[in-house]
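Aim 2, interim progress. The first record below pairs a target sequence with its structure tokens.
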Amino acid sequence: MFKDTKAFSGFSANDIEAAKRFYGETLGLSVSEEMGGLGLHLGGGGEVFVYPKDDHAPASFTVLNFPVEDIDAAVDGLTKAGVRFEHYSGEIETDEKGIARSRGEGPNIAWFKDPAGNILSVLEEGT
């Protein structure tokens, strides 16, 4: 039924202008204004719609993942751009940079938040 539809994902933000600056300038994505929100145009043709919501509640799960070849370089670059990485201890342990290093179970990954508090990640391909 939906095999040939151009599906896309979406999530909300409480400040579309802040989201536009973050996704377009800080993360360097191609961003367009659409239907009162933002279209995020991802590499490989993926699309995400960020829509305004006054009573927005940040997602408590990862809404967008960015695969990278070198997680240390990505985290360092984003940190220099003002992005703050989450730090976890317990079941998931992150290092001083905020990277959860793979112990043979999944990729190296680091989580950060957008201006609306939604959780995003960078994860290292091939780990």
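The second target in this work package is listed in the same format:
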Amino acid sequence: MINIGNDWDAIVGGEQEKPYYQALRQFLKQEYTQNTVFPPANDIFNALQHTAFADVSVVILGQDPYIKKGEAHGMAFSVNPGVSVPPSLKNIYKELQDDLGCEVPNNGFLMPWAKQGVLLLNTILTVRAGESKSHAGRGWEQFTDHIISALSQRETPIAFMLWGKPAQTKAAMIAHCHLVLQAAHPSPLARGAFFGCKHFSKANEFLKSIGKKPIDWQI
């Protein structure tokens, strides 16, 4: 059962009663029993648990979790302390350095962002080991659409960063009062198309323009 432990419970709690989520839950029970699935089951909702609905200033929307052992922990693009920084996150750090002059960190733990109101969300929250998008079309998209819709209806504007095509398809769901930034996925497979997007400085300028504190992006 969904139990986030903050104001997200009132927003997503009703989803667990819907047929699509019940089917998703049964699918995940089977997957976690028969296959290696990331992130660990207890980490699936980490992004929501560490960034409450009322605290969201920025949404970074990715695709699905990392597919290698030990990397995914329920927050898009982040890895736990001690885990090598994945290529996509290395590219994010390079863009941050070029955009805002941030020093490249020696770790990939993005919790400092989450604690400042950056929701690190994927469109799909689980994946089978070694098989990207293996849990696509199973119901997660409907669940995360509900999250995006709820955020879109918030009166306080948010900066949305939509990285990669699956994330970009959500732009039409987002109300005009919010800032919507779109870019290629930071994966090396995108051949550098992510670089130069300057999403981090643009998001901070937007936050300052509405009287909100900018994000300290330095890890």
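The first strand starts at residue 37 and ends at 38. This observation will shape the mutagenesis plan for the next reporting period.
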